[in-house]
Design a protein that fits this description.
Layout: H1 3-35, H2 54-72
Helix pairs in contact: 1-2
Amino acid sequence: MSAAMLSGLLLAVTFSAGKCVFVAAMLLLLAWLICMPRRFIGQAEGAPVWWRNVRIWAIVVNVIQICIYIVAG
C-alpha cells in the first residue's frame, strides 16, 4: 500500500469520524434544548407566542446547522 493511498484513507476516516462527532454533539444540544426546563429561559409563567419563544428559535437554528453540516460538511 502506498503512502499516498494510506494518507488518503486516514484522512477520509478522520473526516467522517469528525463529522459524526460534530453531528452527535449537535444532536445532544438539540435534545437539551427540547428537554430544558422553562425556568432556565425565563418562561416559568408560561410559554410566549411562538415567534417570541426563545426555545423554538434555538431549536430551528440548531436543526438548520445540523442540516447544513450534513449536506455541505
